[in-house]
Each structure stands twice: as C-alpha cells, then as structure tokens.
Amino acid sequence: MLKKVIISGGGTGGHIFPALAIANEIKSRYPDVSILFVGAEGKMEMERVPAAGYPIVGLPIVGLQRKLSLANFALPFKLIDSLLKAKKIIKDFQPQVVIGVGGYASGPTLKMAQRLKIPTVIQEQNSFPGKTNRLLSKDVAAVCTAYEGLESVFGSKVQLTGNPVRQELKELTLSKAEACACFPQLDPEKRTILVIGGSLGARTLNESVLFAADLYEKEKVQILWQCGKYYFESMKNEVAKLNTKTIVLTDFIARMDAAYTVADLIVSRAGALSISELCLVGKPTILVPSPNVSEDHQTKNAMALVKHDATLLVKDVDAKKQVMQNAFDCLNDNRQSTALGIAIKQLAKPNAAAEIVDVIEGLVKR
Question: How crowded is residue 92: how many other Cβ atoms within 10 Å of its Cβ?
C-alpha cells in the first residue's frame, strides 16, 4: 500500500513526462496516495508538474557549465544548500520510497533519502547512464531501465521496464483524415514527413529541411515541421521566401498523436523519451543524434535501435545534406520502410509505467 511517495528530477520533457506517467499510474492504483515532486528552481518542471495537478518543491541546484563561468564557483554552495533542503523535505514528508527520474534535483534528493535509509528507485531513460545515476546506483534499491545491457553498470538491480510515455500515445486511435484535420494546411493525399527536434528545436534538423526545400514538389511529399520556439520566427521568414505549400511549419505540436498518425516517415533527434514514443508509433524513422549532450548518449540510444535494424541513423555533421534525401529514398522503397516500421514497433514497451510501479510496490512490501 503506497501512502507517500517523492518523485524527483526534471529539467527537460524527457524527464518530466516519464515522472508524470509514473505518478499517474501510482495515483490510479492508490487514489489517496500523497505524491510530492522535488525539482530544480527555475526549470520547466516547476510549471509542468503543478499544471498536471501535483505539488512540487524546488531545490537551488544547478548544473556544471561546460564553459568557464563564474556560475561554477557557486555550484558547491548550491549543492550543499540543496542537500540540506532535500533532507528537510524528506524528513517532513516521510515518504515510503523516493523515485529519481534524472535531472539536477534527483541527485541531492536521492542521496539524502539513501542516508535516511529510505528505499530509492532510479528510472534510467538512456542507454548510457549519466554520472549522477552511476554514483547513486551503489545504494539504490532498484534501477528501472529502457535499454538492455545495463547490468554492467547497475548489476542485479536492473529491471528492464521501458520508458513511460504519454497516455495518448499508447494507442493511436485517430484515422488519418481526423489527424489531418488537426493540421488544415496538410494535403491528405500527399505523403508526409514529420520532422521533430524537440520542444526547443534542433538547428541541424531545421537546416536540413530548408536545404532540401526545392525537392519536395518533385518527390511529392509534404513536411510537417516542428522547428522549436527558439527558431520559429527565423524559420517562418525562411519558409515565406520559399513560397511553397509543401511545408507546414510550427514551433510546437500539441497534438503529437495526430502528428504521428499523419506521418509516413519521421525524422527525429534520439532522446530517450522520443525513441520510446517512436517505438510505440511504429513508423519508419531516421534518427539524427544530438552531439550537444553529455557523453554522446543520444548516439548510444540510436545504436540500440540500429542493431535491431529498427531505424536509420544519420550523423549530425552529415544531416544537412543527407537526411532528407535518405527520407525520400526510404519512402520510395516500400520494402525498407515497411521493415523499419515493423522492427521499431517490436521494441515498444507500452506497459512501462505499470511495470515500474510494480517494482516500487515490491520494494515497499519488502
């Protein structure tokens, strides 16, 4: 019986969406449970979590800046402050278990929970764990992973559960006509390539779409393009110069269920949550791993699919000239596109949230 649970982490949607999925699964089993989130001050979880109906407390923790910065000198003091605050939060709330989903806040929160002898669980989204989770793993009770082969890092504590994803993506029930109605500029008769670089966007993917813009009419395709809020104004100006109806540009796609339904092929970064969603969707996919992430973990995420022939991989440095041409070639090769869709679908784990909560229940019972 779960009565009190702390979930800690955030920073990106890739951490927040799984955290909320776990919380929702716990709440569905135990309606009277108290769930408290612990995040990092100023990060997106401080808005997204309350919007989902859960309370959250922020820690002053920040990350290490890769470039020389005065902010790094304050890091030790913010870490100590965060550890002390996390300890007080845990002692006041008295959770039965503390779950870490990655992100700045999860380190201090789980470390203090371990010192207070409270069971801790890590939900590791990536195929290559970050430093924080590797450091925490020594005293953690269980590690729920999305990829095979992490026993070399976490030992026998590994439980292969998959990454929890948004409920509306577990089963795409829209017809293609209904999905197209969500994007009135799309032609329901044309093949559609969906390009998504995350909510903030990806410069390389944006450059790739523009580089191939004069080929879309010839290839008889249209592009549904989430360029990200940082790039939207500049990309809107670039698309206006093209005077084309083959590109539907948006800064953010709220109805991802509709976007995935209309897509005949998807071009995406290789974040762990994105890949988990793409596996559920089961469409041919080209992944362009971001080079701007710690320890190149997106390439490792993508390679976990490549070894099952479940995706095509294009390096970021090659993407501008190659990725859209590869997309055309794949769409024009029915055998390849069908095989990719089948292979990626076989890697889906639609019950990840339920399996993670099963693990948590087992710990609390013990």
Answer: 9
Both 146 and 181 in one domain: the answer is no
The reported pLDDT for the residue numbered 196 is 95
Q: What pLDDT is stored for residue 167 in this prediction?
A: 76
Q: Which CATH number fits the domain that encloses residue 115?
A: 3.40.50.2000
Tell whether 300 and 154 lie within a shared domain.
Answer: no
SS3 (DSSP) at 22: helix
Phi and psi at residue 61, in whole multiples of 5°? -60, 145
Please say if the pLDDT value at position 199 is more than 80.
no
Q: Whole-number mean pLDDT of the chain?
A: 92
Calpha distance 338→97 (Å, rounded): 43
- Return the pLDDT at 12: 79
Number of C-beta neighbours around residue 136 at 10 A: 22
State the CB neighbour count (10 A cutoff) for residue 139. 13
Do residues 27 and 127 both lie within one domain? yes
Range of the domain at 58: 4-165+350-365
pLDDT tens, position by position, 113-167: 999 999 999 999 998 888 888 889 889 999 999 998 899 899 999 999 999 988 7
Is the domain of 339 the same as that of 266?
yes
Number of Cβ within a 10 Å radius of residue 22: 25
CA distance readout (Å), 218 to 149, 195, 212? 44, 19, 11
Between vectors from CA 11 to CA 259 and to CA 73, what angle results, nearest 5°?
Answer: 150
Say if residue 205 is in the same domain as residue 324: yes
- In the sheet with 97-100, reading across from the earlier edge strand, the strands are 56-59, 34-40, 4-8, 97-100, 120-124, 142-145, 158-160
- Concatenating the DSSP letter of every residue in 129-187 gives --HHHHHHGGG-SEEEESSTTTHHHHGGGEEE------GGGTS----HHHHHHTSTTS-
